[in-house]
Predict the 3D structure of the following.
Amino acid sequence: MSGSFFLVLEGLDGSGKSEVSRRLADLLSASLGADRVLLTYEPHNPSAAGDYCRDVLAKRIAVSSRTLALAFALNRADHLERVMLPFLDGDQRVVICDRYVLSSLVYQSTGSLSVDDVRALNSGARAPDLTLFLDASPETCSARIGQRQDHRELFEERLAETRDKYLRLIGDLRGRGERIDIIDANGGLIDVLNGANLALAFLLELTALGAFAFWGIVTGGDALSQIVLGLGTPVLATVLWGTFAAPKSPRRLRGTAYHAFRIVFFVLATLCLLIASSPILGVAFGALFVLNTTLILVWRQE
């Protein structure tokens, strides 16, 4: 999966995650190319047990918690095997999935089925590279749900309890090494996309440091040079970024100076990828940076 990225959006029903997923897919398609971006969802209707899961959610049939958890796990395994993983196997691909394992941990763990039980059923699922949790209040979600339909699905009730459960499990998954960002989703669509763009900016910063380290290792002529450059280059980049671009730094640049520094920093990271890795990876990273920077300037994020 050379340079491919797996992004998941989670949130309560009514949080706006489906609309945000579509907008993010449109933005990334415009930047990377439509053939490199896959927007999908769970439960995935065309995959095994997809329609069955939808029937349960719509309350057309009633089943036990364990049966539903098994159905979702089967749907996810088939969805991964036949759709998402083959797509991610290509160079520089992005998969955006509306709901994933975190939803199962939240909604399918009950008194008779523990979180660990649900986790075990999904133990073979590939972990996302990043999960964005759109955090809207139960009141906001309830109002949005009421505007779009006359009846509620199985899990569109007890929203406050569900939100608390989400936040507890996010803490647990973070402790297990998963990257999950929480975005305030109480505002309008542009506000939510603002938060998603800031999360992308942070991800690009981490990738840039990796690019500097990779360049140092690849271009070092001998073992000592590889160690010195592989460690020294990202350390120097971290010091410079922490001094001139970190939000809490007293020496942080402002305005034009900040944006110029940021452009130089990421252009150098892009060049490192182009020199030390595949051209496609460098181009993809550069394209994401251009998209991210354009939105930062348009939305006046700094």
In short: The domain at 5-187 is CATH 3.40.50.300 (Rossmann fold).
